[in-house]
Amino acid sequence: MSTALTPLTAPTEARLQDIGSAEILVGIPSYNNADTVGHVVRAVSVGLAKHFPGHRAVLVNSDGGSSDETPAIVARTAIDFQHLFIGDQQSVLHRIVTPYHGIPGKGSAFRTIFEIARRLRAKACAVVDADLRSISPEWIELLLRPIMEEGYDYVAPYYLRHKYDGTITNSLAYPLTRALYGQRVRQPIGGEFGFSGALAAHYLDQHVWESEVARFGIDIWMTTEAIASGARVCQSFLGAKIHNPKDPAADLSAMLMQVMGALFALMEQHECLWSRQEGSQPVPLFGFPYEVGVEPVHVNVERMVSHYRQGLADLEPIWRQILADDTFSQLRDLQGISGTDCRIPDELWVQVVYDAAIAYRKRIMPREHLLKALTPLYLGRTASFVYATQGLTSTEAEKKIEALCHTFERMKSYLVERWQPLTLQPATPALLHNTTTDAGGDHG
Question: Among candidates 276, 256, 285, which has minimal Cα distance to 187?
Fold first, then answer.
């Protein structure tokens, strides 16, 4: 494994010399988040002062070249503790505000945060998105205390979200990760995580930093790598996640490609692990679960259906290569049954995902083309979920997601039987590259 140091700027190197070491590190990756980042910095600062007053802590802003005031706001945001019932004994919170190097994207921002954690020999770390509007000081305790006091290595967030927020998580990342690796991590691409310093060092030593993971595959990669490495994994209940929301019918193609590409590449890397895993186990949950109001997410279901139907018309030759004959036949037959509606049942969606993973592995076409061709299918499935849950509360819709997870687990033999070991495969398949250059949060 490589132990090469991640390059840091000269001012950052000087700050590290000044600070020396820290027990706790909280990282905020950012890109043009001037309207929200001040609130996030205040919540982190108050959380550390209130819950970890005797510990040496550092806040790291790893910025992707913001053209607004984001880094300046992080540097100058002041906290007035006077009315917060916090004593005067808290340690000084050190701040490091730095640009990151490498491929533009959230993963490169995290790599810089991991490197600073390693240099400071931090025991417990957390990362939080810069566009959060619902973060409270309690989040900091919930992300760090399981590591500081309970011996966990990785803390995934557990939020309550609107039933149409996080559709990539609900239809793909959560059920597939759960079926493959046997751990019920509800938000594997949530954006807020806690992790031990030892796990940060493990992440740095993996050979993914010049790959697609360095853009937006980072969250699913961190969760999967934590499970696969044998780290102790838990979740913490954070209440509502409110950020700058995205309509699932908007152009999620780039993010879908990156999450799905990372999922499929990780399947190649860890096939010895998941091919033997059966069923799934609950993951310990810290915090106090409570009902909470969530902001509605408005979806343009007609547009999703339109994209799906266009795909069925235009992409038939490609879908026939990616999908098993039976899978494609079922999709085509549904077209005649559903009229203007769109209903892709759970079993068929699971076959689509498993077929796509197998086609990705076999490299039947350039992987970027394969992943792009799956976007209309994903939008069709998302439209199906909207139709199936229109009259349901988010709690009732969660039961539908749970049923989908059981279907992924029950049909896993379909995947295992068709996933043949291939010869002439590279030992560590490189994740595909594409040309997306944004560097912001991940709202799957």
Answer: 285
Spatial separation of the C-alpha atoms in residues 424 and 403, rounded to whole Å: 38
- Sort 325 into a burial class: Cβ within 10 Å, 0-12 / 13-18 / 19+: exposed
Structure tokens at 409: 């687990």
Instruction: Quote the mean pLDDT of the chain.
Output: 89
Q: Using an 8 Å Cβ cutoff, are 379 and 304 in contact?
A: yes
DSSP-derived pairing of the beta strands 183-184 and 93-99: unpaired
- pLDDT, tens digit (0-9, with 9 covering 90-100), for 30-66: 999 999 999 999 999 999 999 999 899 999 999 999 9
Query: How does pLDDT run across 165-201, given as a tens digit for each residue?
Result: 889 999 999 999 999 999 999 999 988 999 999 999 9
What domains does the chain contain, in order, with CATH numbers?
Answer: 10-286 (3.90.550.10), 301-416 (no CATH)
Structure tokens at 308: 């799906």
Choose among 320, 318, 341: nearest CA to 330: 320
The Cβ-side half-sphere exposure at 238, using a 13 Å CA radius, reads 32
Which one, of 142, 150, 187, 144, lies nearest residue 24 by Cα? 144
- Other beta carbons within 10 angstroms of residue 79's beta carbon come to 17
State how far the alpha carbon of 74 is from the alpha carbons of 34, 61, 288, 369, in Å.
9, 7, 30, 40
Judge whether 273 and 191 are in contact, CB under 8 Å: no
Biggest alpha carbon distance in the chain? 70
Q: Quick one: which of 329, 310, 189 has its CA closest to 249? A: 310
pTM: 0.90
CA distance 57 to 226: 24
Whole-Å CA distances, 183 to 242, 397, 409, 433, 444 = 25, 21, 11, 29, 19
